[in-house]
Amino acid sequence: MQIKGTGLKTTRDFVKAKFPSRYDEWLNSLPDSSKGYYLSVIDSARWYPMKEGYLVPVEKIVKIVYNGNHKMAGDALGEYSATVALTGVYKVFLFVATPNFLMSNASKMMSTFYSPSEIKISSKANKSVTLQITSFEDINATLEYRIASWCRKALELINCKNPEYRITKALSRNEPFTEIVFRWD
Q1: pTM over 0.85
Q2: Helix (H) or strand (E) holding 48
Q3: How far is CA 136 from CA 14, 81, 119, 143, in A?
Q4: pLDDT the model gives residue 177
Q5: CA angle 10–16–17, rounded 5-degree value
Q6: Which of the following CATH numbers is that of domain 92-183: 3.30.420.10, 3.30.1380.20, 1.10.10.10, 3.20.10.10?
Q7: Domain boundaries in the chain?
Q8: pLDDT per position as a tens digit, 89-114
Q9: Read out DSSP for 107-151?
Q10: Residue 178: φ, ψ to 5°
């Protein structure tokens, strides 16, 4: 399993921006196999190994900053990542996106950041969308929350009122797929 460098870059930048006084502690807690990626220039377009490049460093964030709370960590990482992505290069996208269009494209975009993975919209309604992750080796609860929170923040950025999500099934709980239901007013 691999992750695009964008995932590593936003993870590193998240710790620097939100917890600058804990950055060195986090960096020094990483095993050498992970630390090297964060000490060098991260190429956003390059593929990195998921475990060493992303999962281990994020678990250290969960432990050091969030006292083991996977949901809080995943929500914060996802919201930060969406804000960075969708208020920068993809800002124009927000002006033309409907919620269903946004979520359909978000699921396609996510599949380009995690390889191999299969992320799709399984159902759409007036003010709800259900996203399914059917193939994603090594996914954990924190990453499921990060993906859910990224999409929730994206909905908020296109002015959906009170977007929320609920994870009803999870690969991380050994269920056949992850299902995330999004609703808004």
Answers
A1: yes
A2: strand 47-49
A3: 23, 19, 8, 10
A4: 98
A5: 85
A6: 3.30.1380.20
A7: 2-75, 92-183
A8: 667 767 777 888 888 887 778 878 99
A9: HHHHHHHEESEEEEEEEEETTEEEEEEEEETT--HHHHHHHHHHH
A10: -95, 135
- Structure tokens given for 154: 């994206």
For residue 125, the one-letter residue type is A
pLDDT tens by residue, 35-72:
999 999 999 999 999 999 999 999 999 999 999 999 99
Q: Which sign, positive or negative, has the C-alpha torsion 155, 97, 3, 178? A: positive
* Residue 127: C-alpha distances to residues 31, 114, 161, 183 (Å): 44, 27, 10, 6
Round the average pLDDT of the chain to a whole number and report it. 94
